[in-house]
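This entry is listed below:
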Amino acid sequence: MSREEQDALSRTALGVFRLNGQFLAVSEELARPAGLTAAWWQVLGAVLHGPLPVAGIARAMGITRQSVQRIADLLVAQGLASYEPNPAHRRAKLLTPTPEGRAAVGRIDPGHAELAARLTRELGGREAFAETARILERLSAAMEAISASQAPPSPPPSRAGTAPPSRTPSPD
């Protein structure tokens, strides 16, 4: 890898990390008046078009199943979502928004629309905004392809009767 490639990777990563923080902050502001957090809104948004199992939501969002499970349970406890049977898997129930959950997300729409309009203007129009989204989707797909091609290394074969190597540093 050349120094220029390393610099491009570093700039991209730092930009994405900063952008993530900016999106989380504005999402919290938009969601708060609706009685939601950004995380609750994100999980509810994943199931607005149809129920999904927690693992499916986690895959779509790129986060752990345990994180989504915790949020899903909170949404159900608050009456914003419910679990329903999953015909494809007896134990992996489907999460679906309740009418109250849909209404809460609906209360975010005006602020969301205003932010979209402002970003469209700031980026120089709809086509520029669409191109920005395409580039981010392409970057995500490339990262996914790299991750998929890097299978975890296999552990060394076990040798019966030998102790595993010590992980503590030797005093020199």
Observations:
- The CA atoms of residues 4 and 10 lie 10 Å apart.
- DSSP finds six helices and three strands in the chain.
